[in-house]
Design goal:
Number of helices: 4
Radius of gyration: 17 Å
Helix content: 25-40%
Strand content: 25-35%
Number of domains: 1
Oligomer: single chain
């Protein structure tokens, strides 16, 4: 009985958390961030490739603007890469997909899983970074 009540209160507390509270938690988390890294996944069993790393606070704060407040469904499209944010000596992983029909970040904070749209600025930054990391050869470019 006690377990059932505990579960019930946990569910109520989860749904009582408003979007404003979630956004506030995210902002607090980003304020504690010490480092940001962007990795892109290769093909097959290729190890993720580090494309960007920074410890500059203004660049780290920019990542907060790359994640829209708009929620997305829990897409099952796979991921193109990940952003690793280090805060309080712990790594937090924000996986992302850049394809048009699946464009989003997926991440967990405070035991809550989020799926949020990538902002236009985030899409532009990550797309340009991807092009620099994996430049197309002339034979790969569409004619």
């Amino acid at each position: 009985m006690k377990k059932a009540l505990g579960l019930l209160f946990g569910i109520i507390a989860f749904f009582a958390c408003t979007k404003e509270q979630q956004n506030s938690q995210f902002e607090e988390f980003m304020a504690k961030a010490q480092k940001a890294e962007v990795y892109f996944y290769g093909k097959g069993k290729q190890a993720p490739k580090l494309a960007f790393t920074t410890k500059k606070q203004d660049e780290i704060k920019a990542f907060a603007t790359y994640i829209s407040n708009e929620e997305t469904p829990a897409y099952k499209c796979g991921f193109d890469g990940k952003v690793v944010i280090t805060a309080e000596n712990k790594d937090y992983i924000f996986e992302f997909n850049l394809t048009e029909k699946c464009r989003h970040f997926s991440f967990a904070l405070n035991k809550t899983i989020f799926s949020k749209m990538i902002s236009p600025a985030g899409y532009e930054f990550l797309s340009k970074l991807h092009e620099k990391t994996f430049p197309l050869r002339d034979s790969d470019k569409k004619q």
